[in-house]
Predict the structure.
Amino acid sequence: MIAIDTSGSVSERDLAEFIAEINALKGTLAVRTTLLACDSALATDGPWIAEPWEPLLLPKQLAGGGGTDFAPVFDWIEHEGRRPDALVYFTDADGAFPARPPDYPVLWLVKGRAPVPWGRRIALA
């Protein structure tokens, strides 16, 4: 599972870098990819799913621009009964985090210096 922060604090340039990183990951990992886009709520036209042999096709414009709440992504995963091998979340980490971590690994790929309360933080240049 991959999530991308589309809040107002994430610039168009940051989003383009996130998409480039997602395409790089997709090219190196032969896994089914589910992408969720979220600011304070999930994008209504997602999720986007691609099998290992398919390209991950995204809309030309990702909805968003509001505040940041990370909980909707974790709530969706739980509500759908999913148990991902991992969640990779692209963000600037400027937002509201769920109080407790889920029972699967979370990698926060963070643009900027903001900390994360749990999971593994990886800085994006």
In short: The mean pLDDT is 88. The radius of gyration is 13 Å. Residues 2-124 form one domain.
